[in-house]
Specification:
Layout: H1 11-29, E1 34-43, E2 70-76, E3 82-87, H2 93-105, E4 111-115, H3 124-127, H4 130-135, E5 138-142, H5 153-164, H6 173-185
Parallel strand pairs: 1-4, 4-5
Antiparallel strand pairs: 1-2, 2-3
Length: 203
């Protein structure tokens, strides 16, 4: 008996949204629209470095501390254009509203932002502003529920936590915040992600 996530999107809705996302990717490839993927992540003081070498008589360990680290929000395109903001405060609807509001003002062409169904993404303050953003050329497209594999920003967070941060970056909250901001600022220049094309087959 296979297990499935409780509340998983119905197959027909998943298929429809997957097809729409494919069409958006096609429009992006033809340069008719700009397409960004959005999501947030938390980088805590618990290190994510998974492996290390040690001699038989040596114990290698990393300092780990309970407590808040830094919260990150990113708008990312497949060609590594990135709009990223960090905060040590809780990620709220107000915070995301401010990011979308600022982003919508400088758009060059019709732009679609792909994001998941987290409650903070559907906050009342965001819903009430959709009409204004659409007039500016900004549209939000919500992925099927429980579909993180369709959001390329997940790759950004994985690389940040497991490749771009070093053990020494976790020494204090200050060093962690600095390292996270430094790495994210380099996205699109010295740090680039090679995204494969959109998978049009249903997963």
């Amino acid at each position: 008996m296979r297990r499935r996530v409780k509340g998983r999107e119905a197959d027909d809705i998943y298929q429809l949204k997957h097809e729409i996302l494919g069409e958006l990717e096609t429009l992006r490839e033809k340069r008719h629209i700009d397409l960004y993927y959005a999501d947030e992540a938390s980088v805590s003081l618990t290190p994510c470095v998974p492996y290390a070498w040690q001699f038989a008589d040596e114990e290698v360990s990393m300092l780990s501390e309970q407590g808040k680290g830094v919260n990150c929000f990113a708008l990312l395109s497949r060609d590594n254009r990135a709009v990223i903001e960090t905060t040590t405060q809780t990620m709220t609807g107000q915070f995301l509203f401010e990011q979308f509001e600022r982003f919508s003002v400088g758009l060059k062409k019709l732009t679609v932002v792909v994001l998941d169904n987290a409650a903070v993404h559907r906050a009342r303050i965001i819903k009430e502003r959709l009409g204004v953003w659409q007039q500016r050329g900004l549209f939000l497209f919500y992925l099927p529920r429980y579909s993180p594999h369709l959001n390329i920003v997940e790759t950004l967070w994985r690389k940040l936590k497991y490749e771009w941060l070093a053990a020494k970056d976790y020494e204090t909250r200050e060093t962690l915040c600095y390292a996270v901001r430094l790495a994210l600022k380099a996205v699109g220049t010295s740090l680039r992600i090679n995204f494969s094309g959109f998978n049009f087959s249903l997963l």
